[in-house]
């Protein structure tokens, strides 16, 4: 799209009068455009720390070469992607909660047994007190 012929056709009158000067202007324009683009790219690279990011991306790619399992890729359906990421976490959390629940139920069962044993002991002591009171009277 930036060919000399296209440039010359845009400035046809000038090209007809001085073709070498038109060629020189075109060359200068292209070189300045290229240097300007390179400067802009360098500026974007510097501002975004792209070099460091590209290096870390290269490192990730190198590490991934040794893997045998395929990498995760989004399906394009956000609901399924979120579900595929959340379900394993939620299942793991559920199993943890069930484990904690079991521990708490066991703890509660032991506490209930000790409360019942305490009540039985209180009932025995009340009977003993009642029996001694009657014996004393």
Automatic annotation (TrEMBL):
InterPro entries: PMF1/Nnf1 (IPR007128). GO terms for cellular component: MIS12/MIND type complex; nucleus. It is found in: Chromosome, Centromere, Kinetochore; Nucleus. Its main location: nucleus. GO terms for biological process: cell division; chromosome segregation. Pfam families: Nnf1. Keywords: Cell cycle, Cell division, Centromere, Chromosome, Kinetochore, Mitosis, Nucleus. This is PMF1 factor. The gene is Pmf1.
């Amino acid at each position: 799209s930036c060919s000399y012929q296209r440039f010359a056709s845009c400035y046809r009158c000038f090209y007809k009068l001085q073709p070498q000067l038109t060629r020189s202007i075109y060359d200068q324009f292209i070189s300045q455009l290229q240097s300007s683009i390179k400067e802009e790219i360098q500026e974007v690279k510097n501002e975004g720390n792209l070099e460091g990011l590209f290096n870390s991306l290269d490192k990730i790619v190198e590490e991934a070469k040794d893997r045998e399992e395929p990498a995760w890729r989004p399906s394009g359906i956000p609901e399924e992607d979120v579900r595929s990421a959340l379900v394993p976490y939620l299942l793991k959390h559920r199993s943890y909660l069930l484990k904690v629940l079991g521990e708490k139920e066991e703890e509660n069962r032991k506490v209930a047994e000790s409360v019942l044993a305490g009540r039985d002991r209180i009932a025995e002591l009340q009977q003993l007190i009642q029996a001694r009171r009657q014996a004393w009277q």
